[in-house]
Write a structure and sequence with these properties.
Order of helices and strands: HHEHEHEHEEHHHEHHEHHEHEH
CATH topology: Deoxyhypusine Synthase
Number of strands: 9
GO molecular function: deoxyhypusine synthase activity
Protein name: Deoxyhypusine synthase-like protein
CATH class: Alpha Beta
Number of helices: 14
Keywords: NAD
GO cellular component, one term: cytoplasm
Radius of gyration: 20 Å
CATH architecture: 3-Layer(aba) Sandwich
InterPro entries: Deoxyhypusine_synthase (IPR002773), Deoxyhypusine_synthase_sf (IPR036982), DHS-like_NAD/FAD-binding_dom (IPR029035)
CATH superfamily: Deoxyhypusine synthase
Strand order of the largest sheet: 6-2-1-7-8-9
Largest sheet: 6 strands, parallel
Length: 323
């Protein structure tokens, strides 16, 4: 057993620590019986550089599909292309409104202690815009991640990288051929830029981007294929929101709306979050609530870890990887 795994086995015995270890063990159990893991990400996980460990999970076939906010999708590439221009603000809790305005005037957007330069991806924005424009002109729309993959496939693109390639989870996903679902693309920097490009006439129409319901159809077909093959699919959720609620609903959709009653429930569920259960939010809903919605079964392994995903997720990944 490796040092991190041994530490967790020795010390993580109670409360959220025990839940963290149990979730990691159950992940390995799922993979051990031929299962696959579907991972979802909300929050600013790419900005906190979760890709350092997540990319290795993808490369070692521990993660098989991803749903994330479009911000997480793009921010992995922002970090890949612009890491050296980021600014750290360790004293972020003490910033005055005037200090925040000073950061804005310097061209920074703050995410907790990390300031993303406003000019992120400007050096390749023209390339993405050309991809959007060509797709709109040809009437061949694509999903957001497909444009990211096409960008990363350009032969001279590596000259812009500012971090090791192995730290980019999107690059690892592209190399593995994973599908990345990003519902709500318009709620992102690139979504805003795309809209502006259409309004300025640089991109012919909004039809360059395939819709969210098309993403659901692709997911439904993939999930059905796995079920027919007898492959159990787990669901590992970081945060909540649309990144998680969108994909987990594929099961009740298949059972209730398409009336495919032999559809298997999700075979594993774990969530890292800090939302309060009493506010009626999806993010704070305990796993048992998902049984009433037809997402999980009564015997589905379920874990709710109330903690900081930037700390807990890398630990779980390390355990699953045997580090």
């Amino acid at each position: 057993m490796s040092s991190i795994s041994r530490f967790m086995e020795t010390n993580f015995r109670h409360f959220n620590a025990r839940e963290t270890l149990d979730a990691a063990k159950a992940w390995n159990d799922l993979l051990g019986r031929g299962g696959k893991m579907f991972l979802t990400m909300a929050g600013a996980m790419s900005t906190c550089e979760l890709g350092i460990s997540l990319a290795e999970m993808i490369r070692q076939d521990k993660v098989h599909a991803i749903s994330c906010t479009a911000a997480n999708l793009e921010e992995d590439l922002f970090n890949l292309f612009n890491h050296n221009e980021y600014k750290m603000v360790p004293e972020y809790r003490d910033l005055s409104p005037e200090a925040e305005k000073a950061l804005y005037d310097q061209g920074f957007n703050r995410v907790t202690d990390t300031c993303i330069p406003e000019g992120v991806l400007r050096q390749v924005q023209r390339r993405i815009s050309k991809l959007w424009a060509a797709a709109a002109e040809a009437g061949e729309p694509k999903f957001p991640y497909e444009y990211m993959y096409a960008l990363l496939d350009q032969p001279d693109i590596a000259q812009f990288f500012q971090i090791p390639e192995e730290h980019s989870w999107v690059l690892a996903a592209k190399e593995k051929g994973l599908t990345i679902y990003s519902p709500g693309f318009e709620d992102s920097t690139l979504g805003n830029i795309f809209c502006a490009e259409v309004m300025q006439g640089h991109v012919k129409s909004h039809n360059a981007i395939r819709t969210g319901t098309e993403q659901m159809e692709v997911l439904a077909k993939w999930y059905t294929e796995q079920g027919k093959a007898g492959t159990p699919i787990g669901f590992f959720q970081i945060g909540g929101g649309i990144a998680a609620d969108f994909p987990i609903c594929v099961v009740p959709m298949l059972i209730q709306d398409l009336e495919l009653e032999d559809t298997p429930f999700w075979a594993y569920f774990a969530q890292i979050g800090d939302s309060t259960t009493s506010y009626g939010s999806y993010s704070g809903a305990v796993p048992n609530e998902k049984i009433t919605w037809g997402k999980l079964d009564i015997d589905t392994p379920r874990f709710m870890i109330n903690s900081d995903a930037s700390i807990v997720a890398p630990l779980i990944f390390a355990y699953v990887l045997g580090w």
